[in-house]
Design a protein that fits this description.
alpha+beta, four-stranded antiparallel β-sheet, two-stranded antiparallel sheet, 6 strands, flat
């Protein structure tokens, strides 16, 4: 995790966001394990309004370090304060765009939920 020099305002906004956040509906089923989970769209739908109401926004970008790829999720406050975390992408098949896309969606969903 990385963060701005101060996160005082961001932590207050994050506290208010968490207090106002609704339950995220599990709207998808994992075909392998048969368990239910919230897909990326359901997570965004649940958090977008409560985030913006507290002056918070999220950006998710891809990063490369040689042949390693990452998703970086950045939680920002309107004051300019921020925290971020990265997730290493490990696609099921190397050099397969579909596998990379799946790994990116998985990473975006997990890092967004963790943030």
């Amino acid at each position: 995790m990385q963060k701005s020099e101060s996160i005082k305002e961001l932590t207050g906004a994050l506290n208010a966001f968490q207090a106002s956040m609704p339950e995220i509906k599990k709207n998808a089923t994992n075909p392998f394990y048969k368990n239910k989970y919230a897909d990326l769209a359901a997570i965004w739908e649940a958090i977008r309004e409560p985030l913006t109401a507290q002056g918070l926004s999220v950006s998710q970008v891809t990063e490369s370090d040689g042949d390693r790829n990452y998703i970086e999720t950045i939680l920002m406050h309107l004051t300019g304060q921020w925290i971020s975390g990265s997730y290493h992408l490990t696609p099921a098949k190397i050099n397969d765009p579909q596998a990379m896309g799946s790994a990116m969606t998985y990473a975006r969903r997990y890092t967004l939920s963790a943030m």
